[in-house]
Amino acid sequence: MSILDTAKETAQGLMQGALEKLVPLAPDSWIPGGVPDPLIARKHGLIGSPVSRLDGAFKVQGQAPFAAEFRFDRMTYAALAYATVARGRVASIDSAAAEGAPGVVLVMTHRNAPRMNTPAVFGSSPSAVGPSDLPIFQDDRVHWNGQPIACVLAETQEQADHAASLLAFTYDEEPSTTTLEGARAAGTEQGVMMGRPLLNKIGDADAALAAAPHSVDHLYRTPRHNHNAIEPHAATIAWVDDQLHIHDASQMVTQQAQTVAEVFDLKPDQVRLTSPYVGGGFGSKGLWDHQIIGAAAAKLCGRPVRITLSREGVYRVVGGRTLTEQRVAIGAQADGAIDALIHTGMAVMTPHNSMPEPFTLGTQSAYASPNITLQVKMAKMNMLANTFMRAPGEAVGTFALESAIDELAVELGMDPIDLRLRNEPDRDPVSGLPFSSRNIAEAWRRGAEAFGWNERSATPGTRRDGEWQVGMGCATGTYPYYRMPGAEARITLTLQDGAIHAKVEIAAAEMGMGTSTTTAIVAAERLGLPIEQVEVAYGDSAIPGAIMAGGSQQTAAIGGAVIAAHNALVAELLKLAGNDSPLAGLSPDEVGSEGAALCKLDDPGRRESYASILGRAQRDQVSVTQAGSPPLELMHWSMHSHSALFCEVRVNAVTGETRVGRFLGAFDCGRILNPKTARSQFRGGIIMGLGMALMEETQFDERNGRIMNPSLAEYHVPVHLDVPEIDVIWTDIPDPHTPMGAHGIGEIGITGVAAAVANAVYNATGRRVRDLPITLDKLI
Amino acid sequence: MTPFTYSRAGETAEAVRMGGAAASAYLGGGTNLVDLMRETVARPERLVDVSGLSTSITDTDAGGLLIGAGVRNTTLAEHRAVRERFPLLSRAILAGASAQIRNMATVGGNLMQRTRCTYFYDADGSRCNKRVPGSGCDARDGFNRIHAVLGASDACVATHPSDMCVALAALDAVVHVEGSAGVRTLPLREFHRLPGDRPDVDTVLAPGDLIVAVEVPPLGFATNSTYRKVRDRASYAFALVSVAAALDMDGDRVRDVRIALGGVAHKPWRAARAEDALRGGPATEQAFRAAALMEFADAQPLRDNAFKPELATRTLVSVLGALAKGDAA
């Protein structure tokens, strides 16, 4: 890092530090969201009514092009070969048979690949989204078992696959760390997330734990998980003149284009990356080696390339959730009041990536306790770079914390819901900030009633249905509200044949969760137009701004950018309206949109339609681009979503098989924008959580660091028969400090689920399983 | 996938003639073979499609069933005679794979399924004596949760994955084979091999042999039979252990019993010791448990599968208990 960079970082750090001191003290009205979004008060519009996905028909008709369905003329097909050692050098490559195989266009290895820069690792700059700080196909080094080391291009996919199977390699192996114990012995270091140490200390938790009349203190373990989006990763790539075109499956379109541009020494506008449809992301649809390999191979052979990872390829190239080992210790008074909360432990990453598994994040704001110690330490292993996977941190962290709360309830002889409510904080226990919106008690009350929690027997192992032991468990889920900077929206109003048409362009990603539909709802409502007159464009690096479909923040970022662009549009239209308008003399903040018109906010009769304004100004179009406000609200309030989760399991007393009989999630996530897609989001998260609870586990062979179940036959995710009736309800109480009063809901669904299942298994059997997944051998 | 030629046989003799050529493989539904070809574990150069041959199910003179090798798994499972007279066979088939796979998979192909050992599948990165004889076994000290506890060898600890074959083993089915040496029959119990020092050889078939039918002999008390599969998720998972059993009660005593186990060995495991122990004895939970323990007396668990003998024992006790009461679902 250069001195200049260091100085810049220091300055940014100082600025950040100053903001963090000042923003909490600033009056609410100075902060974005300080004045509630007027749309919150609008009760009878599109927001909150169920709208079917606007792209639904397209998808079921097969009309929606995914990354591996774009075509270029003279396109070639790529297949990869993967290293079979954990660390070392490629000593020899025998490619003669592959090069002579039918249809082969090119075999590319580090020996003939174009020279490229190392992709900037995720988070090293606002646009950096590289998987690691490792060069790709630039040297003979192997850093993980499964690393791509050769790429074959051929006229058909089958020819490429066959030729790749003919490649033979030898290696000079070097010592590697592939065991957990080896990694631990080599030393752990403080986990750092986005430049901040994952370490919080309030009071003296150790002393308070020792002094507490009641306590629990246990280790919880979660295994590696792999990404299994239904669409395997793919990209269709062409160099056109001096432009690089990538049709990708991406949840961070603009950032990927920028990082790829740097790899190939291109200007940002020389890379055009589109991603109109994504078949599931969950954190995995980012930049990995395959897009860079594909672009390099296309450059080398002078023809377009389609690179589609096989399912095994996804396991070798695309990282997943890393393993964790977490200690949760809680000390409490007899009435349940928590005196000490300790949540510490370790996770594993690689020497080359930047992703800890921040399992303590959800614990920071969970329970009132005068003494808190939270710490994540990281060990290093030679393996594929781990990455984000739906609720990184919270998904596994809530398993440990919420299991421990259940164990404490048993220790105290208290109802676990009562225990949680007993320790409900009135402000954030770690940051000290007030909550922007926290209605978890309401979620518990409504959830318990809907689920029939009062039918639960507090004594484990007392309900029986033939061979099946039946039990109920509950847990809290939690995920923060984020809004990242960088989002911009461009709104273009067009007057054609007397009708107004709006186009809203936003560099967002639609991974199947309904973002494009929700964006249309939000924009239509903001502009006061019917949804049919609003077109949304997204998933294209040519669109201004940068948004990431990550951290459940995309909806908020879009909402904030549309607010800013709408404000700019109002100002622009007022200028065009001039002195002959009923709106003459009004300032932009006195004016809003309603019924395809601008109107005075407190006197809606004073109005002029968009069509009239444009017509009088002899304009057929007006266009504005505006960035959302800086997300200072995150420093002013503690902002979180919550869920109260209820689970009924059946555990077979003979075989130990666990089947989930019922599940209910009661969510407190602000105002729900589109109940139809939201319900699917919540359910999908819960189903993923059931998989995490009961079956998901990457088999990482510690002898050589190789993933041994890279297949949906052997890596178990829930099938239909594993998924019970899932009830989803929500408080629908708007957060007064967010756009539309909404929170992102992509990740909250999975959090807490594994604990709810584990706690139900305890209630059914009296057996406490503290290492996931809860397989039958742990129960017989 | 390695390039191959594909041809479709019009009748059995032609298939056997075509299948006699070197590097040939018979193709049924392709639900396992094609996967293995994609993974380059199987590299046949010639595929002979036999899925259109022998597709009938007929009654034998003796009162059993003759099931053509080309009969689809779904067809067999739903066949009225199978459901009424051999419910364990119907249930075993329905416990396997998914509806889509069962619609494609054939009876002959089901017998020829290869193990799901992940080291066997990993042609690039793992050693496997079954895939490359003499290369070593990475499963023995690796992930072996789904592996064998009975009848394994130093060379191989793999299990046979079929559910249907477990039921057929309990029923003393007979495999009808046609090869260059003509037509012959093989007892299903001897059709699959234990691994010994040749785990690459799954069955006693000679090269070019074609399974043409499976005969299920009559067994009156098979009407009181069932199949129970224990697995890590509710569907679409291979058995950790499975039990196929038929029970003939004489008052409160066992007149006769058939038991076969899946997921525990390199072949469908006919529990002959347990059967012998039970025949003529009391139908009590203690007797069932003692018989099961006897069956697993020589079990040799590995790192990850030590739970299997107990799991199989419990499952067997439960199955026999239900059959004794006549309420096995």
UniProtKB/TrEMBL annotation, chain A:
Keywords: Molybdenum, Oxidoreductase. Signal peptide: none annotated. One of its GO terms (molecular function) is oxidoreductase activity. The keyword Oxidoreductase applies. It comes from the Bacteria. SMART domains: Ald_Xan_dh_C. Residues 61-175 form the Aldehyde oxidase/xanthine dehydrogenase a/b hammerhead domain. It holds the Pfam family MoCoBD_2. This is Xanthine dehydrogenase YagR molybdenum-binding subunit. It comes from Sphingomonas gellani.
From TrEMBL, chain B:
GO terms for molecular function: FAD binding; oxidoreductase activity. Residues 1-221 form the FAD-binding PCMH-type domain. The keyword Flavoprotein applies. Gene3D superfamilies: 3.30.465.10, CO dehydrogenase flavoprotein, C-terminal domain, Uridine Diphospho-n-acetylenolpyruvylglucosamine Reductase, domain 2. The keyword Flavoprotein applies. PROSITE patterns: FAD_PCMH (PS51387). Keywords: FAD, Flavoprotein. Signal peptide: none annotated. Pfam families: CO_deh_flav_C (PF03450), FAD_binding_5 (PF00941). PANTHER family: OXIDOREDUCTASE (PTHR42659:SF1), XANTHINE DEHYDROGENASE SUBUNIT C-RELATED (PTHR42659). This is Xanthine dehydrogenase YagS FAD-binding subunit. It comes from Sphingomonas gellani. The lineage of its organism: Bacteria, Pseudomonadati, Pseudomonadota, Alphaproteobacteria, Sphingomonadales.
